[in-house]
Amino acid sequence: MDAIVGLVIAAIVVVLMFIFVVKTVRIVPQARARNIERFGRYRKTLEPGMNFIIPFVDRVKPAIDLREQVVAFRGQPVITEDNLVVLIDTVLFFQVTDPRAADYEIVNYIQAIEQLTATMLRSVIGSMDLEQTLTSRDRINNMLRGVLDEASGKWGIRVTRVEIKAIDPPKSVVDAMEKQMRAEREKRAAILTAEGVRQSKILTAEGEKQSNILRAEGDKQSQILRSEGQAQAIGTVFQAVHHNDADSKVLAYQYLQTLPQLAQAEGNTFWVIPSEVTTALKTLSTAFGSDNAGQPAVPPAGPSGPGGPGRPGQVTGAAAPAALPADADGRPSLAADGDTATAEAAAGPGAAAAEREAAKEAAADELAAREAAHTRDELAQVEQEVAAVERQVAEAERSGPP
């Protein structure tokens, strides 16, 4: 019986010793701190590691985390300067630097920081409108951090960073902002489209301008070359006429050769024989009278004549020039109608012959005068054409590129 009582007493002593050791030794983890009160008064702060206290005399308070902590505060209603209520979510980063002050200077430093953050947000955001609030987050963060760090310094807390997590305007304001943003983007799209169309039109106009300039330059050079060619051709013809001293007979022959070309154009159904044809025929009859006596100077137009029957420009019937009959000397006679023949028969052979000679001389003089006047007119016309072409060439050279 005594043995059992001894064992119980020994066991009690061992338990008491164990409890004493446990109460005496306190192990504090790294980055933690614990305050010690002795008889209800602050005694000291236990450092990380093994610490010894007096059991039942010293009271150990809960551990305080010395690491940097993160606290998120959600849904803080704040009124802006333009009387809009926005909800602001903030994130606070802080660190306990003085465990004693954090334990004895403030009851709940987390709640204190939250309320202080909400108060400072109302103070800062209240001086800004919605646009500034949405675009000035860095400014708000710096202002909040400075104020919170100053206020929480006496609590043994250092605020390292304050971040605005979210700013939620009212739904109506969000819809209005979306419409405004959509309008701005449509405006920029319209401006870019207009700029593209403008640039396209400018480039098109520049291309057309260059094309017109090049086309005008080509037309100008073409006209200059054409005018120079015409001037050279007219000059060559003019020099050939003056150099060869062509008489009126050659010009009359060239004139008659040009007449069939007047009827070759499409759509010509008739053409009027000019009065100079008779003069040209008389000149040719005078030129070829000595070699072909008794024959007409120009064969009458018929089925085998130039142009053929029924072709435009054919001289038929009364419009065709009559062949001039030749006299005894082989020269063409100017008497072609019946009245002259009757007068010659009535006057006798001698008078008729004299009258014919006089008529021939008068006709020859008149023909020579007409041919000389016609030649002078043609030469004057050629000179005028040459002068006109020279003026065109001079104007083209003056207006040409330097």
Question: Can you walk me through this structure?
Answer:
The longest helix has 74 residues, at 171-244. The strands form three sheets. Strands 2, 3, 5 and 6 form a four-stranded antiparallel sheet that branches. The protein has a three-stranded antiparallel sheet with strand order 7-8-9. The chain folds into four domains: 23-65, no CATH class; 67-169, 2-Layer Sandwich (Tetrahydropterin Synthase, Chain A), CATH 3.30.479.30; 172-226; 246-260 and 274-299 and 317-399, no CATH class. The protein is built from ten helices and nine strands. The chain is 56% helix and 15% strand. Residues 290-347 have low confidence and may be disordered. With 402 residues, the chain is of the alpha+beta class.
How many runs of DSSP E, i.e. beta strands?
A: 9
Helical content band: 55-70%
Radius of gyration: 66 Å
Distance N to C terminus: 144 Å
Low-confidence stretches: 290-347
Question: On the 0-100 scale, what is the average pLDDT?
Answer: 75
**How much of the residues is beta strand, in percent?**
15-25%
Structural class: alpha+beta
Domain count: the total is 4
Please, how many helices?
A: 10
Query: Biggest β-sheet, characterized?
Result: 4 strands, antiparallel
The ordered string of helix (H) and strand (E) elements is: HEEEEEEEEHHHHEHHHHH
Looking at the structure, what is the overall shape? rod-shaped
